[in-house]
Amino acid sequence: MPFIQLEAGKISTEQKEKLIVGLTKVASETLGIAEDKFIVLLKENDLDNWGTGGKMLSKVLGR
Asked: Which of 7, 12, 27, 62 is 20 to 30 Å apart from 47, CA to CA?
């Protein structure tokens, strides 16, 4: 089964649903594999666990 994983900050339930539907649809169309064969994993990470330019992402984004 094809596996799609996306890591991001906090995601609302509505955003999660749109991502799962959209990622599955595009991957299915691109690869020619039925949508029901895909598994999608959305991993939410606290912005304090990410860093860019030597700074925590939460501070870079002002959150």
From this structure: 27
| Statement: residue 63 has pLDDT above 90 | no
- 3-60 classified as CATH 2.102.10.10: no
Q: What integer pLDDT is reported at residue 18 of this predicted model?
A: 98
Among 2, 15, 39, 46, the one annotated catalytic: 2
User: What DSSP string runs through 16-59?
Assistant: HHHHHHHHHHHHHHHHT--GGG-EEEEEE--GGG-EETTEEHHH
- Looking at residue 32, its amino acid is G
- Decide if 56 is catalytic: no
